[in-house]
Amino acid sequence: MPLPRPAGQDRGAARSGARARAMSRAGAVGAILGKLSIDQLLPPERPPPASRHARGQAVTAFSASSSTGSASSAQRPTVGVLGIGIMGSAISANLVKAGFPVVGYDPLPAARAALQAAGATAVSVPEEAIAAARFLILCLPNDAALCDVSRQIAAAGAEGLRVAETSTLAIPVKQQAADLLAARGITLLDCPLSGTGAQAVNRDLAVYASGDAAAIEAMQDVFDGFARVTYNIGAFGNGMRMKLMANLLVAIHNISAAEALLMGHRLGIDLDLAVKVLSDGAGGSRMLQVRGPAMSAGTWDEATMKVSTWQKDMKLIGAALADANVPAPLFSACIPVYNAAMGMGHGESDTAAVYDVLEKMSAISR
């Protein structure tokens, strides 16, 4: 929408004043981008690993809606969940609905209280959840947390335990944890999830399972309890490789959705209608469907993926691109926008807040 003409000024003066204000605002955002450009460039190019092409294996998909032979509720094994954040809380709630006894731990008392309210059993130390579980699900925030948790699991002496690590973390760190647990007779699977927190609530997740095939099969009923589909991606670590490919697309599609909607807003198009119509056409994307409504409403406080958490994923994607010697001009162009969102105080906001970044860069608010 055009800026209103200030009272008492002619049209030329109004345009001059608006132009000055626009340049000032755009300059402020530009300053943010400049200050936050330390992560803007990808890591230095490194030669690809010699075994890159040896990893390819057939991908098997298991749909939750079509799986057969599931155990009855009375026979469900106990599932432990460590990490009851956005994803862990939704996973736990859906497992409870599916009839699984769930024992969970999180360092935050509020998270444990919410878990208890969802019908699961919240415990005050992780060792209690590990001891009670036949299967264990990890939903952790960073590499350090996985290192700590893997040591706790190893110390518990739970031989035969099968563990699904669902977090988006560095593959070498996951492999180190898997090796530590394997020495104790415990199987760790690399099982990152595709989907937002909102999708997790609706059991609309895809599990990218990788590692021991027998362990994946043994955990299939558990995966069906909280996910729409499970893909067996093959060797350990392939789940994370697939997840980074998916997140590269998410990084780009999220910002492209914001660009399209901001353009529509400036052209006078109703954004709720735009989300509906565009999602049904060739330009539609899952990010437009999932984050478009928040962009339309201009609200991103209820995060299903926090900008601060997303920064971790962006760095992992950048490192993987460098390892594979892949040019990534579109991904590289996205990095300063997410950095600017952090600089503007959106660290705890949903990544839909990139709309706010672009809007302020254009110097005209709603």
TrEMBL record:
<feature type="compositionally biased region" description="Low complexity">
    <location>
        <begin position="7"/>
        <end position="20"/>
    </location>
</feature>
<feature type="region of interest" description="Disordered">
    <location>
        <begin position="1"/>
        <end position="20"/>
    </location>
</feature>
<dbReference type="GO" id="GO:0050661">
    <property type="term" value="F:NADP binding"/>
</dbReference>
<protein>
    <recommendedName>
        <fullName>Oxidoreductase</fullName>
    </recommendedName>
</protein>
<dbReference type="Pfam" id="PF14833">
    <property type="entry name" value="NAD_binding_11"/>
</dbReference>
<dbReference type="GO" id="GO:0051287">
    <property type="term" value="F:NAD binding"/>
</dbReference>
<dbReference type="Pfam" id="PF03446">
    <property type="entry name" value="NAD_binding_2"/>
</dbReference>
<feature type="compositionally biased region" description="Low complexity">
    <location>
        <begin position="58"/>
        <end position="74"/>
    </location>
</feature>
<feature type="domain" description="6-phosphogluconate dehydrogenase NADP-binding">
    <location>
        <begin position="78"/>
        <end position="234"/>
    </location>
</feature>
<feature type="region of interest" description="Disordered">
    <location>
        <begin position="41"/>
        <end position="75"/>
    </location>
</feature>
<feature type="domain" description="3-hydroxyisobutyrate dehydrogenase-like NAD-binding">
    <location>
        <begin position="237"/>
        <end position="357"/>
    </location>
</feature>
<dbReference type="InterPro" id="IPR008927">
    <property type="entry name" value="6-PGluconate_DH-like_C_sf"/>
</dbReference>
<dbReference type="InterPro" id="IPR013328">
    <property type="entry name" value="6PGD_dom2"/>
</dbReference>
<dbReference type="InterPro" id="IPR006115">
    <property type="entry name" value="6PGDH_NADP-bd"/>
</dbReference>
<dbReference type="InterPro" id="IPR036291">
    <property type="entry name" value="NAD(P)-bd_dom_sf"/>
</dbReference>
<dbReference type="InterPro" id="IPR029154">
    <property type="entry name" value="HIBADH-like_NADP-bd"/>
</dbReference>
